[in-house]
Amino acid sequence: MNRDDKQFLQGVGDRVRERRLALKLTQAELGKRAGLHRTFVGSVERGERNVALLSLRKLARVLRVPPAELLTEPDPGA
Amino acid sequence: MNRDDKQFLQGVGDRVRERRLALKLTQAELGKRAGLHRTFVGSVERGERNVALLSLRKLARVLRVPPAELLTEPDPGA
C-alpha cells in the first residue's frame, strides 16, 4: 500500500469516525449494528483496512449516510 | 450475498461500464491501465465482485471520476 492509498483509506476512516461520534456510538456499537467486528471498525478508522464495498455499505447504513459519502477522494479534475 | 447487495454491486458495475464505454475503452484496456486483470473488470461490471476500495480507486482514476461517483446507492433519507 503506497502513501497515497494510505491517505485515501485514512480519509475514509476519518469520515467513518466523524459520523460515528456524531451519532454517539462506540466502535463496538457500530460494529455490532453493522454486523462487523469491533476491531474491524477500529482498523477502518485507522486507515489500515482496504474495505470491500459491502462492508462499507453496512457501515454507511448504520451511520445513515450513502456509502459514497464515506469516500473522500477529491475530484481528480478539481 | 443477498439480492439487495447484488443490486448495489450491479449498480457499481453499470457505472463502471457506462464510463468505460464513454471513454471508448475495452475491458482489457481499462484493466491494463488500472493494473487489474481484464476478467476482474468483467466481474465488476456483472456485479459479481465485492470490490475493495483501492481497486475501485484504480478503476475510478482511469475512468477519470472520483471513486464516490461509481457508488450508486441512493441517499437512504431520500
Automatic annotation (TrEMBL), chains A, B:
<feature type="domain" description="HTH cro/C1-type">
    <location>
        <begin position="16"/>
        <end position="70"/>
    </location>
</feature>
<keyword id="KW-0805">Transcription regulation</keyword>
<protein>
    <submittedName>
        <fullName>Helix-turn-helix transcriptional regulator</fullName>
    </submittedName>
</protein>
<dbReference type="InterPro" id="IPR050807">
    <property type="entry name" value="TransReg_Diox_bact_type"/>
</dbReference>
<keyword id="KW-0238">DNA-binding</keyword>
<keyword id="KW-0804">Transcription</keyword>
<dbReference type="InterPro" id="IPR001387">
    <property type="entry name" value="Cro/C1-type_HTH"/>
</dbReference>
<dbReference type="InterPro" id="IPR010982">
    <property type="entry name" value="Lambda_DNA-bd_dom_sf"/>
</dbReference>
<dbReference type="Pfam" id="PF01381">
    <property type="entry name" value="HTH_3"/>
</dbReference>
